[in-house]
């Protein structure tokens, strides 16, 4: 067993073959591509709590960055990826990195050490905090997959995007379940938001209407310890 395949035995998520590439969708919200030893995470929105306090005088518990990094760190330590892609909106606003407490800055630096770290620019953080190190770009092509923050109607096949914070809702046996999710039609994949204080947008919202072929839609709903593959036709508003 190769090192890359051995690492996947540690993942509790779901396998997905996307344009000929075996990907793993994990309950925390990360995507792992073992052939490239590449880990992808989207919409961290670090320092969202301090942004609300500074800009809107709205108090939120100032622990979102801590909670987000504490969820991400064990996944990176377990899988030891060679590359990490943070798929945009890594920071909640342009000044968030300046507000980042030293202990979290140091923790982030430790996670980045010894690997290539790619920051995709998002709409919340269009001016990247270059003092943190890493590579900054609008999009990144790896093999036949294209990593970008915001999905658009016109897209490159094999697009993996974030931005919309997808969630799905299903009704079964008289009960309604709503969860964060990965969503794809085989041509494009949109990842869930990873940040601790991020909300979700139902995949039946009109924002998704021109992004997917509905007949081919599949969602992977995120449970506590597992990812559940659901036919998109079962999802409701």
Provide an overview of this structure.
- With 237 residues, this protein is an alpha/beta fold.
- It is built from 5 helices and 16 strands.
- It has one domain (3-234): Purple Acid Phosphatase, chain A, domain 2 (4-Layer Sandwich), CATH 3.60.21.
- The strands form 2 sheets. Strands 8, 9, 10, 11, 12, 13, 14, 15 and 16 form a 9-stranded mixed β-sheet that branches. Strands 1-2-3-4-5-6-7 form a 7-stranded mixed β-sheet, with no helix packed on it.
- The chain starts with a helix and ends in a 6-residue tail after the last strand.
- The longest helix is centred in the first third of the chain and has 16 residues, at 64-79.
- The chain has helices at 3-8, 48-56, 64-79, 96-99, 102-112, and strands at 14-18, 21-25, 31-33, 38-41, 83-86, 116-120, 135-137, 139-142, 145-148, 159-161, 166-172, 175-184, 188-190, 201-202, 218-222, 227-231.
């Amino acid at each position: 067993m190769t090192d890359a395949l051995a690492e996947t035995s540690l993942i509790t998520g779901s396998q997905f073959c996307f344009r000929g590439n075996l990907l793993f969708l994990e309950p925390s919200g990360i995507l792992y591509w073992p052939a490239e030893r590449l880990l992808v995470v989207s919409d961290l929105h670090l320092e969202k709590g301090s942004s609300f306090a500074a800009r809107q005088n709205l108090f939120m518990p100032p622990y979102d960055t801590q909670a987000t990094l504490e969820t991400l760190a064990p996944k990176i330590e377990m899988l030891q990826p060679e590359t990490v892609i943070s798929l945009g909106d890594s920071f909640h606003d342009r000044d968030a990195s300046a507000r980042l407490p030293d202990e979290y800055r140091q923790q982030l630096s430790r996670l980045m050490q010894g690997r290539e770290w790619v920051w995709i620019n998002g709409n919340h953080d269009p001016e990247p905090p270059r003092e943190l190190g890493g590579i900054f770009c609008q999009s990144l092509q790896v093999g036949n997959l294209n990593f970008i923050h915001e999905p658009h109607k016109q897209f490159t096949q094999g697009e993996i995007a974030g931005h919309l914070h997808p969630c799905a809702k299903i009704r079964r046996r008289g009960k309604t379940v709503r969860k964060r999710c990965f969503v794809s039609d085989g041509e494009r994949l949109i990842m869930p938001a990873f940040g601790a204080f991020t909300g979700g947008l139902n995949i039946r919202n009109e924002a998704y209407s021109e992004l997917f072929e509905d007949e081919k839609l599949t969602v992977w709903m995120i449970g506590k310890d597992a990812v559940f593959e659901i036919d998109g036709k079962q999802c409701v508003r």
